[in-house]
Design a protein that fits this description.
By secondary structure, the chain is mainly alpha-helical. It has helices spanning 2-7, 11-43, 47-73, 77-105, 120-140, 154-174, 184-190, 194-222, 236-247, 249-260, 264-288, 294-297, 302-319, 325-346.
């Protein structure tokens, strides 16, 4: 343990630890995408629903841990609220860019025309949840209204209720999807003994979750001054940019690996499902913050991120409906241009 502290106490050691952890997340993520496809076959859920629910929840757990840690351990409630809210919103922004990146890196495999559906319902669910969050954020400006016993605001309480309804509707819809074709390797996995299959699946999930959490910790250390072994990053960038990207690396790996293997539905479901699940983090963090309402203490600067998520979600919907590589490339490039412009404004 002392050796590890000494290693990450230097810039070179910190960078080495980050790269090594990222490599482990990449390897676990690629394997988990294959097991996720087999899980859809074994359970009858289908790739889209596996991505929307299972992979989304697993890959979003690092965001959950980081946000809860921020509100519980941060001495300044305002800073903790900003880190938790910024981490969630920044992760949702980066997740949407994953679809744009996949379209640019794998133009032949990113074929929206081969999707079971353009995921219109999932996109709409995400926008409704974002609207619920925006309404709760707006109402928090007028004052704190806490639910007795839960210690969260009334507006935030609507998030898990809406999320549960949407998952139930999506499960009913995807029951009607046609049987999917599977690669030989996935067909072998579907016939593995249940104990062996789920043991490996659970181990991969733990590796991915642990790697994501470690990346977020290393990301926080990178914000330290150079004399303390960090890179002196601006504090305003930690939650919305750096922590968000660090904790979103599992989503990136899973989605890119899924697209490369031809599981586009799983990749899209993972991104859209993660964005839905991330909004639940606000509910969990609000309950964990005993000093008052989370959104009441969060900075109004987060409204810029809310607007960016709304715009990127609309563009992602167009991306999933594109019928030509040229259109997909143009939409993906526009999404990155919006992100870069917003980042320049933040800096």
């Amino acid at each position: 343990m002392q050796f590890l502290e000494q290693l990450i106490g230097t810039q070179a050691g910190l960078l080495l630890a980050f790269v090594a952890t990222a490599a482990g997340v990449v390897l676990a993520g690629i394997r988990l995408s294959i097991y996720g496809d087999a899980l859809g076959e074994r359970t009858g859920m289908g790739r889209g629903l596996v991505g929307l629910v299972f992979l989304a929840a697993v890959t979003s757990l690092p965001e959950l841990v980081v946000s809860l840690t921020s509100v519980i351990q941060c001495a300044d409630p305002l800073q903790g609220a900003d880190l938790a809210t910024g981490n969630m919103l920044g992760s949702n922004i980066f997740n949407l860019l994953i679809l744009a990146l996949a379209a640019l890196l794998f133009p032949r495999k990113f074929a929206p025309g081969k999707l079971e559906s353009p995921h219109t319902a999932s996109t709409a669910y995400g926008l409704v949840l974002l609207a619920v969050f925006a309404g709760a954020f707006f109402a928090s400006g007028a004052g704190e209204s806490i639910v007795p016993g839960l210690h969260c605001s009334w507006g935030v309480l609507l998030l898990p209720i809406a999320y549960g309804i949407f998952l139930w509707r999506e499960h009913r819809r995807q029951k009607k999807t046609q049987k999917e074709d599977h690669l030989p390797s996935e067909q072998v996995l579907t016939h593995l003994p249940a104990s062996r299959f789920y043991s490996v699946l659970g181990g991969l999930c733990l590796l991915l979750i642990g790697g994501g959490i470690l990346l977020s910790i290393l990301g926080s250390r990178m914000a330290l001054p150079p004399e303390q072994g960090g890179f002196g990053l601006e504090a305003s960038l930690i939650g919305t940019v750096f922590l968000a990207i660090s904790t979103s690396l599992p989503e990136l790996v899973i989605s890119i690996a899924s697209v490369r293997l031809g599981f586009l539905d799983m990749a899209v479901g993972n991104v859209l499902g993660s964005n839905m699940f991330n909004l639940l983090i606000i509910f969990a963090a609000d309950m964990a913050m005993r000093g008052g309402s989370l959104l009441h203490q969060a900075s109004s600067r987060h409204w810029a991120s809310v607007g960016q998520i709304f715009l990127l979600t609309l563009l992602a919907s167009l991306l999933l409906r594109s019928r030509s590589r040229g259109a997909a490339t143009a939409i993906a490039a526009a999404m990155f241009a919006i992100y870069i412009a917003a980042l320049a404004f933040l800096i």
